[in-house]
Design brief:
By secondary structure, the chain is α/β, with parallel strands linked by helices. Helices cover 51% and strands 17% of the residues. A six-stranded mixed β-sheet has the order 1-2-3-5-7-9, sandwiched between helices. α1 packs parallel to α3, α3 packs parallel to α4 and α3 runs antiparallel to α9.
């Protein structure tokens, strides 16, 4: 499938920067989209006029399908693997160090790296279609890069459940009860109304106070610049294995 129309856009309005990403394969994340996302988050974080950020994806079905299988299959060295999975590390670290609160609009299914994005926003607002699954182990790797963000948000027990039973979907209410989602709404209209209300409220808040609060919320993650790259190297090596190659081929055929 062509990925020429994949994109990341940033739109500013009344103190709110909305970052939207799209990929025709269920909003999956190739390296180019990951690079553009990290840059967009850095840019909004450094923009004095931006008071709050909304992170969303396009379409109606999937929020994010995680890593691009096409790009995973194209990796043929550990260095290439490190470079690809570093894209997820860079996005999560950009979200972690961004001095602005990031509201996540989770409108549909989250898989793998998509769960990582949902965990790394500061306040996730979802609808009832936002099921979650960490599918990495099922394809022979593991949620190594996104793991710290997911574990930080929902705890070791819930993270291990997702990581071990990698083919089971957990519904949106499970994700809300575990703390991944701050709010859960029955339809998209209610979800968007809640996002608009909170973003508008925060846009009129004290940016210095919010920046200091964010530092407190992310306390203890200062070593993630190194940690997530180390984790990316693990995934980068595992993706070269015969088990993973065959597993990804099976997933692509579904």
């Amino acid at each position: 499938m062509s990925t020429d129309n994949a994109y990341v856009t940033s739109v500013f309005h009344n103190g709110i920067t909305t970052i939207e990403f799209f990929h025709p394969q269920s909003n999956s994340l190739p390296r180019r989209i990951l690079e553009d996302l990290a840059q967009a988050i850095h840019g909004a974080g450094n923009d004095e006029d931006t008071k709050v950020i909304i992170l969303r994806s396009a379409g109606e079905k999937s929020f994010c399908a995680g890593a691009s299988f096409d790009e995973l299959m194209a990796i043929n060295s550990a260095d290439q693997g490190l470079q690809f999975f570093s894209g997820f590390a860079n996005v999560i670290n950009a979200m972690r160090t961004c001095p602005k609160f990031i509201i996540g609009r989770i409108h549909g299914k989250c898989v793998g790296g998509g769960v990582g994005l949902a965990a790394a926003v500061d306040y996730a607002i979802a609808n009832e279609s936002a099921e979650v699954k960490l599918s990495e182990l099922a394809v022979g790797i593991g949620p190594f890069v996104v793991g710290p963000a997911v574990e930080r948000k929902i705890g070791t027990s819930a993270f291990s459940q997702l990581a071990i039973d990698a083919t089971l979907w957990r519904n949106a209410d499970w994700a809300r009860r575990k703390g991944l989602y701050a709010e859960l709404h029955s339809d998209t209209t209610q979800m968007d109304e809640s996002i608009h209300r909170l973003a508008t409220e925060l846009a009129h808040g004290n940016p210095e106070a919010m920046a200091e609060l964010k530092k407190i919320f992310w306390k203890g993650t200062e070593h993630w610049d190194k940690l997530l790259l180390e984790r990316a190297a693990i995934s980068g090596k595992l993706v070269l294995g015969e088990f993973t190659r065959k597993a990804i081929e099976k997933f692509k055929k579904k």
